[in-house]
Automatic annotation (TrEMBL), chain A:
Annotated region described as Disordered, given as residue ranges: 146-194
Compositional bias (Low complexity): 180-190
Keywords: Nucleus, Transcription, Transcription regulation
Gene Ontology MF annotations: protein heterodimerization activity; RNA polymerase II general transcription initiation factor activity; transcription coactivator activity
Protein name: Transcription initiation factor TFIID subunit 6
Pfam family, one: TAF
A biological process from GO: RNA polymerase II preinitiation complex assembly
SUPFAM superfamilies: Histone-fold (SSF47113)
Family: Belongs to the TAF6 family.
Gene3D superfamilies per record: Histone, subunit A (1.10.20.10), TAF6, C-terminal HEAT repeat domain (1.25.40.770)
Keyword Disulfide bond listed: no
Organism: Astatotilapia calliptera
Automatic annotation (TrEMBL), chain B:
Family matches, as SUPFAM superfamilies: Taf5 N-terminal domain-like, WD40 repeat-like
Entry keyword set: Nucleus, Repeat, Transcription, Transcription regulation, WD repeat
Gene name for this UniProt entry: TAF5
Domain TFIID subunit TAF5 NTD2, residue spans: 160-288
PROSITE patterns: LISH, WD_REPEATS_1, WD_REPEATS_2, WD_REPEATS_REGION
Sequence segments annotated as region (Disordered): 1-57, 335-383
Protein name: Transcription initiation factor TFIID subunit 5
Compartment(s) of residence: Nucleus
WD repeats: 417-458, 490-523, 532-563, 574-615, 616-649, 658-691
Family matches, as Pfam families: TFIID_NTD2 (PF04494), WD40 (PF00400)
Amino acid sequence: MSAMAEERRQKHCSVVLPTESMKAMAESVGVGQLQEDSCVALSEEVSYRIKEIAQDALKFMHHGKRRKLTTSDIDNALKLKNVEPLYGFQSQEFIPFRFASGGGRELHFYEEKEVDLSDIINTPLPRVPLDVSLKAHWLSIEGMQPAIPENPPPATKEQQKVESTEPLKVVKPGQEEEGTIQGKGQGTTTPDGKGQCLGLIRLKPRSTHELSVEQQLYYKEITEACVGSCEAKRAEALQSIATDPGLYQMLPRFSTFISEGVRVNVVQNNLALLIYLMRMVKALMDNPTLYLEKYLHELIPAVVTCIVSKQLCLRPDVDNHWALRDFAARLMAQSCKTFSTTTNNIQSRITKTFTKSWLDDKTQWTTRYGCIAGLAELGPDVIKTLIIPRLAIEGARIKAVMEGPVISNIDKIGAEHVQSLLLLSPKYPIPYHHLFI
Amino acid sequence: MAAVQGGMSDADIETDIKTEPSTDGFGNNNANDGRVLSASPGSGSSTGSNKQTAAVTPEDQQTLLAVLQFLKKNKLIESVEILRREAGLPENSLDPKATESAGAGSGGAAGIVDLEGGDVSSLLSRVTGSSSAGAQAPTKAVAEDQPDVRVVLSAYSQQGDPTLYEVYYSDLKKFIETVLDCHRAELSQVFYPLFVHMYLELVYNNHESEAKAFFEKFSGDQECYYEEDLRVLSGLTKKEHMRGNETLLDFRTSKFVLRISRDSYQLLKRHLQERQNNQIWNIIQEHLYIDIFDGMPRSKSQIDAMSGSLAGEAKREANKTKVYYGLLKEPEIELPLDDEDEEAENEEGKPKKKKPKKDSMGSKSKKQDPNAPSQNRIPLPELKDSDKLDKIMYMKEATKRIRLGSDNLPSVCFYTFLNAYQGLTAVDFTDDSSLIAGGFADSTVRVWSVTPKKLRKVKSAADLNLIDKESDDVLERIMDEKTASESKIMYGHSGPVYGISFSPDRNYLLSSSEDGTVRLWSLLTFTCLVAYKGHNYPVWDTQFSPYGYYFVSGGHDRVARLWATDHYQPLRIFSGHLADITCTRFHPNSNYVATGSSDRTIRVWDVLSGNCVRIFTGHKGPIHSLAFSPNGKFLASGATDGRVLLWDIGHGLMMGELKGHTDTIYSLRFSRDGEILASGSMDNTVRLWDVMKAFDDLETDDFTAATGHIHLQDNSQELLLGTYTTKSTPVIHLHFTRRNLLLAAGAFNP
């Protein structure tokens, strides 16, 4: 019935039920051979009455403060007309009509399944629905909306995007009213009306870089927990980063924190911290309310560093820096997938970077591993066009290290890992024989 | 409590009759009717009614005759007698021939300039028309009624060549498109009512295909705000459909009101006479009421601001009655100062102490607000001790009130109803913000305490006997501790609860429901005390008077009723809306009631006389919320069109338009000092508006009270102080606490 309402909105001219429906209904109550004229008359009458009922039902929807018309609205509308309501249509969500066709006729019907009573008796009772309860929160405090989970995120992803791509068009709900207040402030010098006229020429709003005290505290707590020693706290902090809707104001800080952190810790070969930082990147990327595009220039270099850096830890022969490279490679692939566009070309630029250093003969085994891992994560297409053709050459190179004179243990381990990586990628069809020719 | 006399004045007879058929079946009418009218003799002391009886104009007399005839036809002999006696009509005046000829005479004599003519016939048809609306209910009256319906519709039977309708209409269209710009906007108003009447004429005379073609050709030209009505109209393609269609009957029986300047009107008249376009001229004569004014023609925007209602604009006379919008004088209560307060707020304490004193001293010298009604214009209940205590609390709180303004916005506390499964239909807060009540689609009414004080029932009668009635804390002792809980559920309704309202003393709660009743609940025992029956159709809204005792209700039967809690039948019936009454509000001085309706008008009714004293048009959709400003001067209204309109009650003028919401506005509330208007909507936002600025701007600029043609500035964006979005929670109620904290409520709709 709601579909019908929709149709009518599109076009005023009356929509009438098809006469076949009348015939089908007549047949269903045992009246065969209905005259065509009667069908036409009936369908017009029925269509009209249905529309009347739908109009009344809409009233009930409006007073029920809902946007969705329910079956109970129709029942109430029928009651208004002193018609007995339709029993058995209690569905809240959808109207359980089924469609069937055959023999050139189409039919909508209400599926009435036969139900075995003992089945009903034997099934365990469903959980009792929760009772209505009341919960209070601050929607606004002296004109400012606090960023708490009960409130929607202060700026939606779209708004953040608009803000970063078209800074002159920005109208954020929070700033909008700040703007008017500022207008009032200026009103002391210029007449109010003029101030408002000037307001029409939108200047780029000064973005507020100051964080509130609460936000500063939060930032401190979160960053400390993320790189601290307590794993439980870290999990909690990462969870918060991944889900909290109000982080966008802190995003620049987090981004700088990560990129600086990586820069310092790569030099110091602090593997643990690098892993923690990468997990932060992962959490930020998981947060559905953040628009990260603006900060990729800081995040991507950090991630790439963790993939291809020559040395990531103090004891490359013992520590498992390979896992970090894998993890970062996956992050890289994820960001390529989500952020790569025709204008920023992230994926092709990253691919080029990886291939270039891989092709270089002097590249260390660790970097080589990173490059291959990074490429391998980018999907079957990349593997097919870039990795597979190189397999033979790479195989030869590995062979040379493995079978040749032992120059350095580290090289050997690196070669082993590259080999196993190339062997492991077989999520994708890699012809094994390429490796050992 | 003061006894209230049922002083229904005779002037209401007309309105009464109009309503009753639509209220219920005919069996009930009889009783209803007899009671309403016989209530008058009891109120002999009421000055108003006497005066009006004496001054029965000839026109009124004809009205009466028509009413009598109708009553007689429906065999309401008793009512006929009473009415006749009261109106002082001789017995033989009830000669049907006389009335009929009068009706026919004036109908036929509807002169070209005399637009007031044909009153009786239109009244008669109105009576019969609405009776057919009642006849939808399958009562035995149906058969009896049919001739009457024919009378109503037969006005459409005189017809020209159906194929020429399009020609006529396009001819007029061409003419209006070529007139001077200043007249075009005004004359364009004629299009919509003409279109509808011509279409209906075609349908009535069984020219189905012509009607369809006519509709398709010209429906696109109509103003967008008539979309809803056009949709109803488009469904109507057969003569049979017209019978029992309320929209149509409304349209037919109430003259569509247009305001046109004299120049424009002359232009139109000359054109139609030159062209011999009688078809259109007849429609204009019979179905339109053209309110001609002298002066500049109005601009398109001025017209658009006021049009949109089901029956055109309000006539200018409709808004001329004086309205006593001032506030009643507050009773003098000495404010006791306890030591704590004095210490805490030394500065505040002093003026506070003086103020009540000054009031009590100078109450005689201080002139009463000239716009306020006299203190006992309508009898109000006397203050109880507990009320006085509450007043003191109120005054104390008021001193701590935050002064709001554009640079000092209120904080908003949002109460979210969780797990309501789309079933929350109404919310109310008590004035002191200690309790919240919710009405639900599952017919329940729930009350929550939002303070640490839990809700307790009174002990059972047996236990109450054991209490020492002399003790000081007897009020505490009667409560049963065992029943203490944060919320209570009350069962009684048999349909969704659409309206809910606390009494000012917090002892009672009212709820109105789809089941046609208004129920009064005790908040001491948490049981139902009374079910007020009378509406018979869904009751969309109800509200207690700010002084308690009275309450108003309005619903699908298109009448609002005024009740007193100790009367099981209504004291007043406010009738005149052409469609469902969707919301009802009491004026702060309790002397007036405002109702909003699906016919897209707002009416203000005088509680004393039962008359409609204001009609506000301008909304383009059903009105779902109303709010009076605390000083009683202004009214704000919100509708499905997402706009808030501001009205000056005294002058009967539109004061402003606040655009911003994108969906139905379900709640409006002025802050306690009237500085800020808060609006809550289905679009999940609460918005704050600088209404002081809106009122100031208008008064200084274009205040043309004489004509009522205001220029509205499009300054909604400047007036919007804040927008606060909720997390998919429509805002269905707003309330300012006594300290000006804004409370909002709604159900989370995942």
